[in-house]
Specification:
Elements lengths: L2 E8 L8 E6 L2 H13 L3 E7 L2 E2 L2 E13 L5 E17 L6 E7 L8 H20 L6 H5 L3 H9 L6 H9 L3 H29 L11
Parallel strand pairs: 1-3
Antiparallel strand pairs: 1-7, 2-6, 3-4, 3-5, 5-6, 6-7
């Protein structure tokens, strides 16, 4: 059964479990946020890539309002939640709404390959965080399930919006990890090589920009 929700078209791809800070400044979206808060209703992010609004999107759950401004603008923090497919766009309000159908990954039986991929993903995420100068709670990462883990991997900056949109549409956690884990591994190697080159080059003026 379809559900009607407000939608916000953006040139990004929001994945489940991913944080997304937003600055709400257009009048129509000020009204959308006010309606969502009043009705305790979620809104969806629909990707616009190459000037085309795509059919799959992700609910942006409001985590908190960071700041409200006197002119009605606001800074908010959202997190990706359920995924959906847009069946029909509705243009009856100031902002867009859509009839959507939610979807999930297929149920994953106990699977040795999926468990091995998940172990690889956890190791790679720790390595990626270290290269980026970030920290990750290793024990907390061990408790993350395979589906959530697949979105943590595909949410990294190794992947562009086109890649992320393909991962958003997938309905298999194992297939998502199967495709994403080797790409993340390659991305880590590339970043590590760039970091090592910068160290080797040291103080050679003007060359650091080659490796940004």
């Amino acid at each position: 059964m379809d559900t009607v929700i407000p939608i916000l078209p953006l040139s990004i791809v929001l994945l489940p479990r991913m944080p997304l800070p937003l600055h709400i400044f257009e009048d129509r979206y000020k009204q959308m946020l006010a309606d969502c808060e009043r009705l305790e209703k979620p809104f969806g992010i629909v990707p616009v890539l190459a000037e085309e609004m795509h059919e799959a999107g992700c609910i942006a759950e409001l985590e908190r309002v960071i700041e409200r401004y006197d002119d009605g603008r606001s800074d908010i923090l959202t997190f990706g939640a359920k995924r959906f497919v847009v069946h029909r766009v509705i243009e009856e309000r100031e902002y867009l709404e859509a009839e959507v159908e939610y979807f999930d990954d297929e149920a994953l039986e106990r699977d040795l390959e999926a468990m091995q991929l998940a172990d690889q993903a956890r190791t790679l995420l720790l390595e990626f965080a270290e290269i980026q100068g970030q920290s990750v709670d290793e024990k907390a990462l061990e408790r993350v399930g395979i589906e959530d883990l697949s979105f943590l991997v595909t949410g990294t900056e190794v992947f562009n919006h086109r890649d992320k949109y393909r991962f958003l549409q997938m309905r298999s956690s194992k297939e998502r990890l199967r495709r994403a884990v080797p790409a993340l591994e390659r991305g880590i190697k590339t970043r590590r090589s760039k970091r090592n080159l910068k160290r080797i080059l040291g103080e050679f003026d003007g060359l650091e920009n080659l490796f940004n």
